[in-house]
Design goal:
This is Dicarboxylate transport domain-containing protein. The chain is mainly β. Helices cover 8% and strands 63% of the residues.
Length: 680
C-alpha cells in the first residue's frame, strides 16, 4: 500500500511515501512509482523520499531519489538491512537514467561504497527481468541476471576477477578480513513464493590474503575451489559441497597449516540443525578422515558425531594438529612416528567410544628425557561398557636410563582404568608395578600405584648414564606413588647401596611434571660411605675414612637446584683417617682464594698424606647464595678439615657467603684438575 503524505509546491517536487511490502521481490519498485508522476513535472528536478521499505529478511530506510533535468539521477539509502547485516549511507549516481513503461535503466553509474566500479542496470518491467553489471579495471566483473516472473523465478551471478576486498563491509569487523584476492565462478538461485528452493555455487579462489587486527589469524596466497549445492523440499534442505585448498598458507593460532587439505561433504539442514551424513576430510601427509555430525546452529552445540580414520600417519598428524596446543607442556618437543587407526563416537554431550589401534609407533622427546619404541596397542574404550586394552612396546628410555620390553593389560570402564600388575626390565633388575589405578574425581585426573625395584647393579647403572664408575646396588620399595592436582608424591623410601654405605631418598614430590618448569623436592640421607672408594671414583685425590652426607629441604625447579640444606661430615666410629696432598689442594680450591691450610707450604711438601680428626662442610642454598659451614668456627672463619695425628693438617674456610654459580665453577675446575691450591 502506497500513501502520499505531502506535496511541496516549488520548482522541486518532493513526494514522501511509507511502504510495507509483504513479498520478497522489490526490484523495480522505485521506477514503477515514478511512472505515476504527472508528465509536466519531468522538466523539473524531482526528489522522491520513501520513509522505509520492509519485507521478510530485508529492510531499507531513508530512501531518496533525485532526478535531474539533464537525465542523470542520484539515489541514496540511509540504512539497508538484509540477513544479519546492516549497511549505512549507500549512494548511487547514474550519469544517464532511463525510465519508461517498459524499462528502468542506469547507465555509467557509480556506487560510493564500491569505488572503481562502473554500474550498469537494466530492469524490464513486464517480463520482470533484471540485469546488473559492475565492471572495473583488469577485467573485473560482477554480473547479476534475474528472471523474477518465471516459475520458478531464478537469478545467477557470474564473477570474473572479482576483488574479494569489496566484500569486507559485509563481514564482521572484528574477524579476519580480506586484503587481496579474486573470485571467479558462478552462483545460481531458484525459488518460488515460499522463497529460495535451490542454490548452486562453483567458485575459484585466487591469491587470497586475510588477517585480523590481533595477527592471530591470517592466510596468504590462498588458491582453491569451492563447490556447493542445496535443494529445499518443504522445510528440509539437502546439501552437498566440496572444498579443495590448492595452494597457500594459513595461521590460525596456534595452528600453522599448508595447502593440500580438502573436504567433501553432504547432508541435510532443517529447523536450525545441520547434519553431515557423509564427509571425507583429506589431511596432507596424514591420510583421510571420515566423519558425520549433527549440529545445532542456534545453540552452537554438537549433538551427535562420529569420526574414523585408517592408517593415519602420526608424524605429521601430531606435529601439525596436536603439538601446537602443547606448547607449555613437557610434550612441546615430542615427536611421534608410526600409524594409527582411530574411531571416535560422540552422543548426548559426551564421548561414547574411542577406539585406538597403534602400529609400530615410537615416541621421542627432542631433549632426550624419554622415548618409547615399537609400541603396538589395541585400546577399545567405551563410556559405559567394560573392556581391556592391550599395549606392548619393544624398548624405552627414561632420563637416559634404558628400559626393556613389556606387555600391559589395562581394564577400562568409563573414566576408570586399572592395571593389576606390570613388570618393566631395568638393566639387571626389574621395576614391579602393582595396583595401578587411574580415575577422574571432581573433573580432575588422579592415579596411584605401588612399586618395587629389585636390585640394580650400580656398576651397570653408572656405565649407561656416563657416571664415574660406582659399585654396589640400587633397590627400593615404595608402598604408594600418587598423582593428584599436578603433584606426584612418593610415600616410602628408595634405597641405594653405594660406596660400601647406604643411601635413602624419601619424601619425594614432583609438582607439574608435564609443565615447562617442573618442581622436585625431597630428602637424601647417605650413611657410612667409604671415602677411599668415593674420592678415587671422582678423581678428587685420596681420602681414607668414612662420611655421612645429608641433603634436606631439597627443591629443584626445572631440574636446577633452587634450595637445599646439604652437609658432609665424618661418620662416627674408629677407622683410618688420612688425606692426600692432592685432596687438600682440591678442598682448598673449593674454598676459593680466601681458603687455606693451617701449616706452611714448605713443611707440607715433604708429605704425600696427612692425618685428620674430622671433616665437615655444609652449604645452605637460598636465593642463589650458599651459606657455608664446617666442623666448627665462628664469624667468617670455619674449619673444613680438622687436623689430627702426625703429620696433621687443618684446612680453613674464610668466606661464609658464596655465590652458587661460582661454587659450581670451582667444583668443575677441581674435577678437571685445572686449578692447584696454594697451601700455607
Amino acid at each position: 500500500m502506497i500513501e502520499p503524505d505531502t506535496i511541496m509546491p516549488d520548482n522541486t517536487t518532493n513526494h514522501f511515501f511509507r511502504i510495507r511490502i509483504p513479498g520478497q521481490l522489490l526490484t523495480g519498485l522505485l521506477g514503477l512509482c515514478l511512472l505515476f508522476l504527472p508528465g509536466s513535472l519531468w522538466a523539473l528536478q524531482v526528489t522522491l523520499n520513501i520513509a522505509d521499505v520492509a519485507a521478510p529478511g530485508f529492510s531499507a530506510r531513508g530512501i531518496k531519489a533525485v532526478l535531474a533535468q539533464n537525465g542523470s539521477a542520484e539515489f541514496s539509502i540511509a540504512e539497508l538491512g538484509f540477513a544479519d547485516r546492516t549497511l549505512h549511507g549507500l549512494h548511487l549516481h547514474c550519469a544517464e537514467f532511463l525510465l519508461s513503461t517498459e524499462q528502468i535503466g542506469c547507465l555509467n553509474g557509480k556506487l560510493d561504497s564500491l569505488p572503481g566500479l562502473s554500474v550498469f542496470l537494466n530492469y524490464r518491467v513486464k517480463p520482470q527481468r533484471l540485469e546488473l553489471r559492475l565492471t572495473g579495471k583488469k577485467d573485473e566483473s560482477w554480473q547479476l541476471n534475474a528472471d523474477l516472473r518465471a516459475q520458478p523465478w531464478h537469478a545467477s551471478v557470474r564473477l570474473r576477477n572479482a576483488r574479494i576486498i569489496r566484500l569486507s563491509g559485509l563481514l564482521p569487523p572484528d574477524g579476519p578480513l580480506p586484503s587481496q584476492g579474486g573470485l571467479n565462478g558462478t552462483l545460481a538461485i531458484k525459488g518460488d513464493q515460499q522463497g529460495v528452493r535451490q542454490f548452486n555455487a562453483d567458485l575459484q579462489l585466487d591469491d587470497w590474503a586475510v588477517s585480523d587486527a590481533s595477527g592471530l589469524h591470517a592466510a596468504e596466497k590462498i588458491h582453491g575451489k569451492l563447490q556447493a549445492q542445496a535443494t529445499r523440499t518443504g522445510r528440509i534442505w539437502d546439501w552437498s559441497g566440496t572444498i579443495d585448498w590448492q595452494d597457500g598458507e594459513l595461521f590460525w593460532q596456534p595452528l600453522y597449516l599448508r595447502a593440500g587439505h580438502a573436504l567433501q561433504a553432504s547432508g541435510k539442514w532443517q529447523d536450525g540443525q545441520i547434519q553431515a551424513t557423509q564427509a571425507v576430510a583429506t589431511l596432507p601427509d596424514v591420510g583421510q578422515v571420515k566423519l558425520s555430525a549433527l549440529w545445532d546452529i542456534s545453540n552452537s552445540k554438537l549433538l551427535d558425531g562420529r569420526l574414523s580414520g585408517k592408517q593415519l600417519s602420526l608424524a605429521a598428524g601430531f606435529a601439525n594438529y596436536a603439538r601446537p596446543f602443547l606448547e607449555n607442556t613437557a610434550l612441546a618437543k615430542t615427536e611421534l612416528k608410526g600409524h594409527a587407526d582411530l574411531e571416535w563416537r560422540y552422543r548426548k554431550n559426551a564421548t561414547e567410544a574411542l577406539l585406538f589401534k597403534l602400529r609400530n609407533v615410537s615416541v621421542a622427546d627432542a631433549e632426550g628425557r624419554f622415548s618409547l619404541n615399537g609400541i603396538n596397542a589395541d585400546i577399545p574404550w567405551h563410556a559405559r561398557a567394560r573392556s581391556v586394552a592391550q599395549v606392548s612396546f619393544a624398548d624405552s628410555e627414561l632420563m637416559k636410563l634404558p628400559l626393556g620390553a613389556s606387555k600391559l593389560k589395562i581394564q577400562m570402564q568409563g573414566k576408570d582404568f586399572v592395571m593389576p600388575a606390570a613388570s618393566l626390565p631395568v638393566l639387571d633388575g626389574k621395576l614391579e608395578i602393582t595396583d595401578f589405578h587411574l580415575h577422574q574425581k571432581d573433573g580432575n585426573w588422579q592415579w596411584n600405584f605401588s612399586n618395587t625395584l629389585t636390585p640394580i647393579s650400580m656398576d651397570k647403572l653408572s656405565a649407561v648414564l656416563y657416571w664415574p664408575q660406582m659399585h654396589g646396588t640400587l633397590s627400593g620399595y615404595v608402598p604408594r606413588v600418587s598423582y593428584q592436582d599436578k603433584l606426584i608424591r612418593a610415600d616410602g623410601t628408595l634405597l641405594f647401596r653405594v660406596f660400601d654405605g647406604t643411601a635413602e631418598v624419601d619424601h619425594l614430590e614432583l609438582y607439574d611434571p608435564f609443565g615447562r618448569a617442573p618442581r622436585l623436592s625431597g630428602n637424601l640421607d647417605m650413611r657410612d660411605l667409604d671415602l677411599d672408594l668415593l674420592t678415587n671414583t671422582f678423581s678428587f685425590g685420596n681420602i681414607q675414612g668414612r662420611i655421612d652426607l645429608s641433603v634436606g629441604n631439597l627443591e629443584l625447579v626445572n631440574w636446577r637446584p633452587a634450595r637445599f640444606d646439604a652437609r658432609v661430615a665424618s661418620s662416627p666410629g674408629k677407622y683410618r683417617k688420612r688425606i692426600s696432598q692432592k685432596a687438600v689442594e682440591n678442598i682448598t680450591a673449593l674454598g676459593g682464594s680466601g681458603a687455606g691450610a693451617a701449616l706452611q707450604r714448605s713443611f707440607l711438601r715433604i708429605f704425600e698424606s696427612f692425618g685428620y680428626e674430622r671433616i665437615g662442610l655444609g652449604c645452605e642454598l637460598h636465593n642463589e647464595i650458599c651459606t657455608m659451614s664446617g666442623v666448627d668456627g665462628e664469624g667468617e672463619i670455619y674449619t673444613i678439615v680438622q687436623g689430627g695425628g702426625i703429620p696433621a693438617i687443618t684446612v680453613m674456610g674464610y668466606n661464609r657467603k658464596v655465590d652458587w654459580t661460582e661454587l659450581l665453577s670451582r667444583l668443575e675446575r677441581v674435577m678437571q684438575e685445572n686449578m692447584q691450591a696454594v697451601v700455607k
